[in-house]
Amino acid sequence: MRRWLGDAEHDELVSLFYGAAAGETPWPAMLDRLASLFGSSATLLGLHRPNSMQVLAMESHNYSAAFLREFFQSEIYANDPRIPFLNRVRCGEVYYDENLYDVGEMERDPWVRASIHALKMFDQVGAKLRLPCGGSVTVGLLRTRAEGRISMEAVDSLRRLVPQMTLACALGSVVARETATRLALLDVLASKSDGLVLLDDAGAALFVNDAARQILQSGDGLALRDGVFVTRRGPETRKLQRMIARTLENFRRPGRGGGGRMLVSRASRRRPYAVSVASPPDREPFLASRSAACVVLVQDLAVGPAAAKDSLRALFGLTGREADLCVELVRCADLEQAAACCGMAVNTARTHLRAIFRKSEVASQAEAIQLFGRIR
């Protein structure tokens, strides 16, 4: 039987699929080319929960994202009698209308007619691909009545693509999960109250979280100038730069030592910064994947722990004013001063404090400060 796709076209689609899975090619561009080579007006790429046709995400070259969200969350999709047949297709198989169900009977169903009307397509052929997480991906080619039913040559050509498409999607799934994890870790690092700077093996800053950026830009004794850490005092600057240099050298030539801790004085005469320099742990894939060679941690000793107001309200059911008082109490460790910072009378603060004790099940102000100081 004549192949629908030649070898060159087959290889082109395989390359596009790997490129899309790796994030180098937009999925709609790959799907557009797939539709073009198979002579179909529409293509859909769906991500589904394990053992289900419930849609988690959908890509297409011709339908808008808004339309896809609305359609796959609609009654039309939920009640389409063809969905259970699609759910029974095994991963690695190609499916088309005629080998799933009685097409004539299905087209008499009102939900099927509503689906055909919404998508403006009446014929489909596709493949179900397995993902490492247990979920699946469906690649569907949809055709108008004018385009007619899919040919068996096209079905066979799609079947030839299935092994490579499965591998590409599996690799893409792993890459996507690692990327999502990396971004989540970046968000956590960015929100830390301590300053954190990651340096590459040349000493350039790879990552600076918000707390470190604020410290470095404050002009109060520690700065990053032309990519080099400097302090307000020459001996401190030289010591800090030596610690970083030794750590970077240890990254290039393990076993030579490095790192250390020191205090950095401040122009404001407030308590100093505590600066720690260390190599990234070998077990930390996030750091390794970013090629971080040195970790610089900066603690502002003039700033006490800060409780998170939203977290206090969510965890203990505190009111807004009660949470405000908790935040200031942790910062000041003194009820009168915390009340003044909140703009409330001391007697009002004591009333709030009794409610706080009851809701958080603590027995003393010291216990409350210790507990709330750990909430972020």
What spatial form do the alpha-carbon principal axes imply? Answer: elongated
**Helix coverage percent:** 40-55%
> How many strands, which pairing sense, and closed or not: the largest β-sheet?
5 strands, antiparallel
Termini separation comes to: 65 Å
Say what oligomer this is. single chain
**Helix-and-strand structural type:** alpha+beta
Report the total helices.
16
Arrangement of strands in the largest sheet: 2-1-5-4-3
Order of helices and strands: HHEEHHHEHHEEHEEHEEHEEHEHHHHH
> Approximately what portion of the residues adopt beta-strand conformation?
15-25%
- Rounded mean pLDDT is 87
User: C-alpha Rg, in Å?
Assistant: 30 Å
Uncertain stretches of 5 or more adjacent residues: 283-290
**Total beta-strand segments:** 12
Describe the structure.
The structure is a single chain. The chain has 376 residues and is of the alpha+beta class. 49% of the residues lie in helices and 18% in strands. The protein is built from 16 helices and twelve strands. The chain has helices at 7-21, 27-38, 65-72, 75-79, 83-87, 103-107, 110-119, 152-191, 210-217, 234-252, 285-289, 309-316, 320-332, 335-342, 346-360, 365-372; strands at 42-48, 55-60, 94-96, 123-130, 136-143, 195-199, 205-208, 222-225, 228-231, 260-264, 273-278, 294-300. The strands form three sheets. It has a five-stranded antiparallel β-sheet with strand order 2-1-5-4-3, sandwiched between helices. A five-stranded antiparallel β-sheet has the order 7-6-12-11-10. The model is unreliable at 283-290 (pLDDT under 50).
